[in-house]
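Researcher: I need the complex structure. Ligand is zinc ion. Inputs:
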Amino acid sequence: MQIKFWGVRGSIPTPGPDTVVYGGNTTCIEVRAGDTNIILDCGTGIRELGNHYSRLGKAVKVHIFLSHSHWDHIQGFPFFMPIYRYGNEIHIYGPAHPDRTIRDLLTLQMDGAYFPARYFELAAKIHHHDLREESVDIEDVTVHSRFMNHPIYTLGYRIHHEGKVLVYTSDNEPYSAFLYDHLKDFGDAIPASEMEEFLAQCNRRLVDFVSDADVVIADAMYRTEEYPRYRGWGHSSAEHAMELAIKAKAKKLVIWHHDPNRTDADLEAMVRDTQAIAWSRGSKLEVVAAKEKETLEI
Ligand SMILES: [Zn+2]
Ligand SMILES: [Zn+2]
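Model: Output:
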C-alpha cells in the first residue's frame, strides 16, 4: 500500500513561509493498493492530486471516502478536475445525516451562490454510497468504517490490503467525562458509574478499530497543555493520539490535521516530544508528522 499526503492541515489552508515544510493544504490522502485508487477526504490538497491524474492522461477510476462534511474535508472537491471529464468514474462514500445524503451534502457546497459550476453539471459518472458502520470490498481491498467522536456524523476508516492495515481516524476526540457533563445539561438521569463504563467501552471500541495497524493517521490538533481549552471541540492532542496508538499496538503513528497556527518548527518539536514520551513508556511506536507530498509505503 502506498500512502501519499496531499493535504495535512485542519480547519483552513495556511500558505506562507511558516508552513512550507509540512504544507498548508487541508486534508487529502491518496492510498494506492494494487489497482485500487482511494482518496481519504477532499480538502484543498485534492486539487493537485486531480492535476496529477490529468497529467497521466488516462480515464480516472477512484474511490473517495469522506470522513465528514466539515469544510476542511470537502472544500477541494469542486477543484478536483476529474469530476469535469466524461469517461471518469468516481465513487463517493461517506456518512449521511438523518436528513441529508452524502450527495446532498456535496450538492449544497456547489449551490450557485457559493460556486459557479453546479453539481448536476459534473461530467464524470459519480456514484454515491451512504455509509454507516460497515465493510466495503473493492477488488482485493476491504474498507471498514466506524463512527468517531466529533460534533457531526464522522467516520474513520480501516483499510486492509495484502495483509497490511492502514487506519485513518480523521477528526476525533477521546470519549471523556465531557460528554457526561453535556448530557447532564439535558437533565439526563444516567448514573455516573454507568456513564463511566459507557465511555470506557466507547474508547475500547476505538482501540479495537486501530488494533495492530501498520500505520495509524490520527488527529493531533493540540499540544497536551492546549487541550483543556478545546475540550469538547472534537479533536485530540498528540499525546491522545500516541496513547491510542500504543494501546492498539500500532507500529507507526502519523500525527495529522495540523492546527492552522502550528508552524514547521512547532510540528518538529511536537513530533520530538511525542516520540520521547512514547519511548519513555517502553513503546517501540514510531511517531512522525504528516508532510505534504511525502509517500509512505507499507
Ligand atoms: Zn477537520
Ligand atoms: Zn471536523
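Model: Summary of the prediction. The chain has one domain: 2-297.
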